[in-house]
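Exercise 7b. Backbone tokens:
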């Protein structure tokens, strides 16, 4: 069976990389102490394909996406469901008090809390039971249902649908977007944030969480732009995060490792790429280095 793009459904794809499954299993074990071996029992290697129509890169096979138990393991890390994200603050400025908001994958409810604090009607979807219980304990309206089921019941009821750090987890992108659009009123907006794999993140080859079963796709600005023409959306704006201080050192290390792997240790040392150098650069030229997140604002046609 030919591999097809998760966005277009067409076989216009190119194989770009093959990664031994054991390498990914080791990364999860060493970095997070999580055993993901069960996902790769009959998969000796995963493949990275590029959709030639949209420039979207995705992992195959598609059936590697994580289950609820995996996300409950991640929830023991305080940083996994943060109380603040760059895209939360930005989206608050983009949404008016008169609009009804649906957040897909709302986690502990941090963004819903922000909406409630500003008098905006918002509800969330969350299938991770532990996260949902925390959100509901705050008095937030959070449903335990899939987007597909919600869209069938509440078609065209939302003015704004938000999916923050969600799309990269989705294997079947086309079906997901169809349901998101079904939930939106005509002329409504879709706000999508994803890790920016056009940023320094692309150099961090050994970042466990940027691989299955956690991430199933690798988005960047070009793929978000091209997405609009495939599913009844028009792109209004694309926003780039500025690099966060907490990410500077890690970003420098990722670039250093990439140079070392590609050109050797001497070249990496000569270039002097590291957290300290990158930090000085950012301090001298604010806004010159992009952060690790993109936010796309679309309108339903």
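Sequence design result:
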């Amino acid at each position: 069976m030919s591999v097809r793009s998760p966005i277009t459904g067409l076989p216009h794809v190119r194989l770009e990389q093959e990664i031994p499954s054991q390498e990914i299993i080791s990364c999860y074990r060493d970095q997070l102490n999580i055993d993901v071996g069960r996902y790769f029992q009959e998969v000796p290697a995963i493949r990275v394909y590029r959709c030639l129509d949209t420039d979207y890169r995705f992992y195959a096979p598609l059936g590697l996406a994580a289950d609820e138990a995996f996300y409950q393991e991640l929830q023991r890390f305080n940083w996994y469901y943060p109380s603040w994200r760059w895209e939360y603050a930005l989206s608050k400025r983009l949404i008016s008090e008169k609009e009804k908001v649906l957040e897909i994958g709302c986690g502990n409810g941090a963004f819903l809390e922000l909406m409630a604090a500003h008098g905006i009607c918002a509800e969330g979807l969350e299938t991770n039971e532990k996260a949902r219980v925390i959100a509901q304990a705050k008095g937030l309206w959070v449903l335990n249902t899939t987007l597909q089921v919600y869209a069938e019941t509440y078609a065209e009821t939302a003015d704004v649908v938000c999916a923050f750090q969600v799309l990269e987890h989705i294997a079947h992108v086309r079906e997901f977007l169809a349901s998101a659009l079904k939930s939106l009123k005509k002329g409504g907006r879709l706000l999508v944030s994803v890790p920016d794999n056009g940023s320094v993140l692309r150099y961090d080859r050994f970042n466990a969480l940027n691989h299955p079963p956690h991430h199933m796709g690798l988005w960047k600005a070009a793929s978000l732009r091209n997405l609009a023409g495939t599913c009844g959306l028009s792109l209004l704006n694309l926003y780039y995060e500025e690099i966060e201080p907490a990410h500077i050192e890690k970003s420098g290390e990722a670039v250093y490792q990439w140079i070392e792997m590609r050109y050797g240790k001497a070249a990496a040392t000569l270039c002097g790429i590291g957290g300290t150098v990158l930090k000085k650069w950012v301090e001298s030229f604010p806004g010159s280095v992009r952060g690790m997140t993109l936010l796309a604002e679309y309108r339903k046609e």
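Instructor comment: Residues 245-263 form the longest helix (19 residues). The chain has three domains: 13-65, 73-241+289-300, 245-284.
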